[in-house]
Amino acid sequence: MSGILILEQTLNGLQFGLMLFLLAAGLTLVFGIMDMINLAHGSLYMVGAFLAATVAERTGSFVAAVAVAIVGTAIVGMALEMTVLRRLYARDHLAQVLATFALILIANEAVRLIWGPQVPLNTPPALSGPVQLLPGLAYSSYRLVIIAVGLAVAALLYFAVTRTKIGMLVRAGASNREMAIAMGVNIKRLFTIVFGFGAGLCAVAGAMLGPILAVQVGMGESILILAFVVIVIGGIGSIRGALVGAILVGVVDTMGRAFLPALLREFLPPQFASALGPALASILIYVLMAAILFWKPQGLFPARG
Amino acid sequence: MSQRLLSLAALSLALATPALVAPAAQAADKIKIGFISTLSGPSAAIGLDIRDGFNLALKLAGNKIGGLPAEVVVGDDQFNPDTGKQLADRMLKRDRVDLLTGIVFSNIMLAVVPAAFEQKTLYISPNAAPSPLAGKGCNPLFFVVSWPNDAYHEAAGQYATTKGFKNAYLVAPNYQAGKDSLAGFKRYYKGKVVDEVYTKLGQLDYAAEIAQIRAAKPEALYAFLPGGMGINFIKQFVAAGLSKDIQLIVPGFGSDQDIIRAVGEPMLGLFDTAHWSYDLENDANRKFVAEFEKEYKRIPTVFAAQGYDTGLMMDAAVRRAKGNLDNKEALRAAFRAADFKSVRGAFKFNKNQYPIQDYYLRVVSKDAEGRIVNKKIGTVFTNHGDAYVQDCAMK
After folding, report:
1. What is the DSSP pairing of strand A137-140 with strand B99-101?
2. Which residue in A97, A222, B174, B381 has the fewest CB atoms around it within 10 Å?
3. Which residues pair with B379 in a beta bridge?
4. How many CB pairs below 8 Å do chains A and B form together?
5. Hey, is the C-beta of A8 within 8 angstroms of any chain B C-beta?
6. Are residues B158 and B45 in the same domain?
């Protein structure tokens, strides 16, 4: 097992983790500030990817595609908040889960009606090749861009949350919502803004991951489960927790997938080892989650004291 | 109470079962085909091609099969064995279809065929041909018009041996056809297998596997990844810069037109093995390729050819059985005769009702019009059957 292999797998883990972070950041804010379980968060990720694919096909520009996807998805998110989700804040979590699950089904069918089950979205040609990072390690340039975008968005978020007025309100809302309302924060408008912002982050993830994965109906569901794991590990309502949790999940998942089968193959025949490998690798994340919940029931960085 | 209700339900079901009704010994006035396939999701391209090929055959025959007006009941299994099984139950019991076909994936096939066998309905497979149904589990009601699951991979293994690759790395999804594929490759590959990796079925990100391959530095890489999995894998393989050092070999569908459409130029120079090629020189094939391009404005894939052949075979068999769909024995005998002009050229059934046919080496290159296509450059096997037939008790 060489150092280069471990380095490459770390990059893979980082890339996956940062994209998870974009999803988890929006989710954790909505959950932390509004105390609202939004299962339809993954649907916004899907909408973002489909918008990006459409614009990329029409204009040929990937940057324009990402920009339009962010704005478009943010608008969709805010419209959703103002028409449907706002009515759910006062309800209990079960009602929220049911209603937003219905939204997933509606979103999937709506996207299928508008775009069909799948649309192509390709890596921009300039980024479709590899770059030589080290002797013996050529790495996909597009994946490096994803890492860069993920880090940039994380830095931007950190700045927005810790240094701006809106960020201050967000933090106030996350740590004590009643008190924030009592202090005169316009919580209604804040919720809409936060929701739109979360939707925009979803669109970034959807547009960036689209060329690597596939832009298809239902793409949001599987990744949403991981995003929930991330916010549980990181601590609900905490952006910093989401970042750490996402990278932890990304790296553990990738490392598990890469090295567990090899490890198991020492003892087992290959088809068992590789059947067991991915299964164990995905369990690994949940083991991690269980362990963290055992020692830190509030997650790594609880927003509420 | 509930017990009585249950027995009543069971009784009425038993009465409704067509097996208890005496078969009428005359020609039917129409034929109903149940077509279950994977028509949505990332692996849908295969199912859609099979459907388009099948529909084309029907259309050219005036929407008739063996002279009978045909009705096709289409169902999307959504790449899910449970959904496939439910669809099959509905088509068999409610729609009373005469023949079943369409399934792409072996795991779905294995979930569906027991229901068809129970209802004594013939299943004509346009694609999936899993090894369990070729050997001990062979069934008189099961016909394969495509190729045994292992065959492309056996041909690829033979090619890798002939070409003298000293070692190879193998990748396949962890399901029946994946296991069949690597077993097939290894059966004819004489070099050293560096490693064989089974990924999750439907996996879309292969970053972790690609890093392992880079570290292993094999001479050749054999990847069996049908549909969207293959598109993602080849794109990521090229993006990671491995295509320069490692010769990628794939089964015929792994570099077919659907993959070429998605990946483009990086595919050029890739070798694959298949039982059909768009430039095969025979009348049936020339007609098929021309009509397909006219109808759908794209170059057909092996899957489209399989769907088309399935249509041709049904047409020929039903005609041979004189349209009598209730006499299952006669209908089966008519299918076994395989009395049709296949687009692949020579075709006959083995005793396990899997095909015996030729397999070709193809290379991805540009045709006269500059389109990227698969060209036939050689023959790997002639009159090739499968490795399981001796376990089949059928005669």
Report:
1. unpaired
2. A222
3. B360
4. 98
5. yes
6. no
Q: Tell me how crowded residue B363 is: count the other CB atoms within 10 A of its CB.
A: 16
Alpha-carbon gap: B207 to the closest alpha carbon of chain A (Å): 6
Range(s) of the domain holding residue B126: 26-149+281-357
Q: Are A114 and A51 in contact (CB under 8 A)?
A: no
Q: Where are the domains of chain A?
A: 3-295
Burial of A113 (0-12, 13-18, 19+ CB in 10 A): exposed
Question: Residue B197 pairs with which residues in a beta bridge?
Answer: B171
Do B228 and B295 share a structural domain?
no
DSSP letters, B130-160, are -GGGTTTT--TTEEESS--TTHHHHHHHHHH
Residue B79, domain CATH: 3.40.50.2300
Structure token pair of residue B190? 């004489």
CA gap A60, A65 in Å, rounded: 8
**Does B21 map to a domain?**
no
pLDDT in tens, B251-294: 888 888 888 887 777 788 888 999 999 999 999 999 999 999 99
Q: Does A216 touch chain B (CB under 8 A)?
A: yes
Burial label for B11, CB within 10 Å (0-12, 13-18, 19+), is exposed
Beta carbons of B212 and A5 less than 8 Å apart: yes
What does the alpha-carbon distance between residue B86 and residue B359 come to, in Å, rounded to a whole number?
35
Contacts of A224 (CB under 8 A, 6+ apart): A23, A27, A39, A41, A42, A45
Q: How do strand B68-76 and strand B64-65 relate by DSSP bridges?
A: antiparallel
Q: Report how many domains make up chain B.
A: 2
ipTM here: 0.78
A120 in reach of chain B (CB within 8 A): yes
* pTM of the predicted structure, to 2 decimals: 0.77
Cβ contact B121:B36 at 8 Å:
no
Digit-coded pLDDT (tens) for A78-106: 999 999 998 998 889 899 999 999 999 99
User: Which secondary-structure segment (H or E) carries B332?
Assistant: helix B328-337
- Supply angle C-alpha A84, A180, A295, rounded to 5: 90
